[in-house]
Amino acid sequence: xxxxxxxxxxxxxxxxxxxxxxxxxxxxxxxxxxxxxxxxxxxxxxxxxxxxxxxxxxxxxxxxxxxxxxxxxxxxxxxxxxxxxxxxxxxxxxxxxxxxxxxxxxxxxxxxxxxxxxxxxxxxxxxxxxxxxxxxxxxxxxxxxxxxxxxxxxxxxxxxxxxxxxxxxxxxxxxxxxxxxxxxxxxxxxxxxxxxxxxxxxxxxxxxxxxxxxxxxxxxxxxxxxxxxxxxxxxxxxxxxxxxxxxxxxxxxxxxxxxxxxxxxxxxxxxxxxxxxxxxxxxxxx
Length: 286
Description:
Blueprint: E1 11-14, H1 20-31, E2 35-40, E3 55-59, H2 65-79, E4 84-87, H3 102-123, E5 134-138, H4 151-168, E6 176-182, H5 201-209, H6 216-229, E7 236-239, H7 241-262, H8 273-283
Parallel strand pairs: 1-2, 1-4, 2-3, 4-5, 5-6, 6-7
């Protein structure tokens, strides 16, 4: 086993720990001996962490700024710092543009991106100014390639990836940043998605569950092990065999676009006038 890059007393702050990836990551962090701040809208749903002494369970609803502030304050009071933020809380909305409902669209974005931005903003002052700390945002493969029934969900996850890129490119921030982009895993996110009568949700879920779903616990271990052991993190951590196939296909398509774009006159590099003059001089015959 590789040696950990982060210290053994590192503090993880994870949102949305009641189920799915959040639950699996929280349990693995606690088992690994790191300090953990586990959050959920209902603290009672975190009872599975009761056996661990290195864990603080707090209420947090990412759509309510006061609960974010109080959760961060409780974390700092207990541990004095937050080394790793994992923005995991999120919901799904199975719909298309024609049938979307305004209130549900707002609820989706309030949770999936505005909640992540607000949580990150409140925690950044307490993240140590070193390259061992990290902000990890849980996105989705839909945040790289959006499909039928997931268009709004995919848009919200594209925004999550944009948040990660922005954090990574902020020169004064000395922490690692990564987006996790899972494919199809056995979580409750689709079952618990916002309802929309415009689409046959049951038919979509039947198709979804007829496919192979990845093991959430193995994926959670990959995420935490990367954070703990790797000095350099990928911008996009794509998880799942089928997600990797889709990602490779997307890269091939982008390469095709690049070949086309390089031929456009506006994208051609302008030649330096001095270099042009010298080129013409060399071509002249004396």
